[in-house]
TrEMBL record:
This is 7-cyano-7-deazaguanine synthase. It comes from the Bacteria. It comes from Accumulibacter regalis. It holds the Pfam family QueC. One of its GO terms (biological process) is tRNA queuosine(34) biosynthetic process. The keyword Phosphoprotein does not apply. The gene is queC. Its EC number is 6.3.4.20. Keywords: ATP-binding, Ligase, Metal-binding, Nucleotide-binding, Queuosine biosynthesis, Zinc.
Amino acid sequence: MNTPPDSPGQRAVVLLSGGLDSATTLAIARAAGFACHCLSVDYGQRHHAELQAAAAVSAALGAAEHRVISLSLDVFGGSALTDAAIAVPVDGVQAGIPVTYVPARNTIMLSLALAWAEVLGSNDIFVGVNAVDYSGYPDCRPEYIAAFERMATLATKAAVEGAALHIHAPLINLGKAQIIQRGAELGVDYALTVSCYQADPLGRACAVCDSCRLRQAGFAAAAVADPTRYAR
């Protein structure tokens, strides 16, 4: 892919976890003509395979830059993703907010993206949250994204001086199959992505956590071959 001109008006910060949704979001931002500055967060999650995947996805999709910030949310725990004493659920997706919810994670990550966007002179942040095939996380809802955008207009120098900032959540109303189909159209190599909550050091998925189940169902519904590497 050819990288678009990197002028301030065309720059965007893209939150990139290394998973299926964020990879698709990056592809959408690139297709819209943005020079994408990707931001990943090492927040003390169970594995680093997704960060390695983020680097591979960023390179494959021609991002202008990829940075990783270390911010250890595991000092608080409170989630199966940041506390080894809390088991990752493997019995199927249940109603309600699961123990894989990381308190305030999206608020923290969007705040970091907002800070970088101001430094870059960018008015656009992309995030791959989804309110359809999601696991009950309150910070993946449209109301939350709208509220954060309103807050950003009050909290930043750029917005006070008239540069309105936009939080783009292009997947928020799409089902997993629709996300996969859109990404396939844009040339996303899903073999590079890691979505599993408890992937092994090689990035191989467990096949039974909520994220794996939603991913498997998405590929099946999209009638797209699932390139996920499984540990079993």
